Amino acid sequence: MTPAAATADAARPGSVPTLVIDTAAVTANVRTMGAVTRGEVMAVVKADAFGHGTVAVARAALAGGATRFGVTSLAEAFALRAAGFTERILSWLNPTDADFAAAAAHGIEVAVPGMAHLAAVRAAPGLDVHLQLDTGMARDGASPDEWIALCGAALAAQTAGELSVVGVMGHLPCADRPADPANAAGRARFDWGLQAAQELGLTPGDHHLAATAATASDPLSHHTMSRIGAGLVGIDESHTAPLRPALTLTAPLVQVRDVTAGTSVGYGHSWRTPYDTRLGLLAVGYADGLPRLASNRAEVLVGGRRRPVVGRISMDMTIVDLGPDDGYEGAREGDLATIFGPGDAGEPTAAEWAGWAETLEHEIVTGLGPRLHRVTVGDPPVDSNRPTLTRIR
Ligand SMILES: *Cc1c(COP(=O)(O)O)cnc(C)c1O
């Protein structure tokens, strides 16, 4: 199905709120990121590929030149294997009692962020590991104080045949602000950590520090590979790469009503009509991921024009002012509202919704609820021979 056909389908009166995922945009975005870096592109498909659907995004990313996958939990890695993906997969966020034996059995690579994890991983022989250095977030990864000991213990384990150190990784804290000195400091710490590992005798083939924003804005961060997550789906917080959003959310008007000036609207009566107007009701709300903070701020596209969201967004419903000045007297039940999309037709983008909700685009796209009808369009077409994640969940 083409995007247009999917939209037409969603436009039929009586149809449902629909999230269209454009995998051609994902493929194009991976090509764009691949052209920016000389390194390999790891497609980071965590959190259901940022809410876009792991299998479709993973396939589209491979078509665009990504060579392997990154995820947080082992569960996400096992799901990729179960869906038939045979590429290398790195999982970097696990508790020490995770099933590392199953990771070894499925050929999943794991990050080792400290001595406790190293001990757990040694107990499951045969794993390929990436030693993870904290490069300035105090979040995940070993501190510089522990790093030399970690590298030494990992080398001993490698010599004993228990594991192979195939990578060294870090993550930058402020890559969305390329000029922030924390990035240069993070790079310097990573370079130090990599050199220390090599001087001890480790020979990691992969050294990777950059995610989307650093890949787009900071060539010094590139090393041998970039871990691209947000960029797959068109998000670059450094605003330097020309990427395309991959999601369009539409919903039909389920009811329209004419109201007189002075009518109070929605829970808490947070908006009163200043004029006689026509209101439209959409069957999507905060349970579907529309942030309540965007109430009385957001806009949607109906009848070719931006219309304000009025009153509080409720759990299942959102109210739109369809008039009066740009007069949408013709509005009727079944007319389609575009809540967000790439912006081609003047519709808001997920980035605008993020602004209205005082958050990141990431939080908008990963917060979309399970009730939305999901349609995947574009190339490569969804291969029905390949089991979907829904089937193996
Ligand atoms: C999520 C994540 C990425 C991907 O980051 P994006 O900015 O979304 O490209 C890369 N590395 C790590 C460690 C992550 O957690």
Automatic annotation (TrEMBL):
<feature type="active site" description="Proton acceptor; specific for L-alanine">
    <location>
        <position position="267"/>
    </location>
</feature>
<dbReference type="InterPro" id="IPR000821">
    <property type="entry name" value="Ala_racemase"/>
</dbReference>
<feature type="binding site">
    <location>
        <position position="315"/>
    </location>
    <ligand>
        <name>substrate</name>
    </ligand>
</feature>
<feature type="domain" description="Alanine racemase C-terminal">
    <location>
        <begin position="246"/>
        <end position="377"/>
    </location>
</feature>
<comment type="function">
    <text>Catalyzes the interconversion of L-alanine and D-alanine. May also act on other amino acids.</text>
</comment>
<dbReference type="InterPro" id="IPR029066">
    <property type="entry name" value="PLP-binding_barrel"/>
</dbReference>
<feature type="modified residue" description="N6-(pyridoxal phosphate)lysine">
    <location>
        <position position="46"/>
    </location>
</feature>
<keyword id="KW-0663">Pyridoxal phosphate</keyword>
<comment type="similarity">
    <text>Belongs to the alanine racemase family.</text>
</comment>
<dbReference type="InterPro" id="IPR011079">
    <property type="entry name" value="Ala_racemase_C"/>
</dbReference>
<dbReference type="InterPro" id="IPR009006">
    <property type="entry name" value="Ala_racemase/Decarboxylase_C"/>
</dbReference>
<dbReference type="GO" id="GO:0008784">
    <property type="term" value="F:alanine racemase activity"/>
</dbReference>
<feature type="binding site">
    <location>
        <position position="139"/>
    </location>
    <ligand>
        <name>substrate</name>
    </ligand>
</feature>
<keyword id="KW-0413">Isomerase</keyword>
<dbReference type="Pfam" id="PF01168">
    <property type="entry name" value="Ala_racemase_N"/>
</dbReference>
<comment type="pathway">
    <text>Amino-acid biosynthesis; D-alanine biosynthesis; D-alanine from L-alanine: step 1/1.</text>
</comment>
<dbReference type="InterPro" id="IPR001608">
    <property type="entry name" value="Ala_racemase_N"/>
</dbReference>
<protein>
    <recommendedName>
        <fullName>Alanine racemase</fullName>
        <ecNumber>5.1.1.1</ecNumber>
    </recommendedName>
</protein>
<feature type="active site" description="Proton acceptor; specific for D-alanine">
    <location>
        <position position="46"/>
    </location>
</feature>
<dbReference type="Pfam" id="PF00842">
    <property type="entry name" value="Ala_racemase_C"/>
</dbReference>
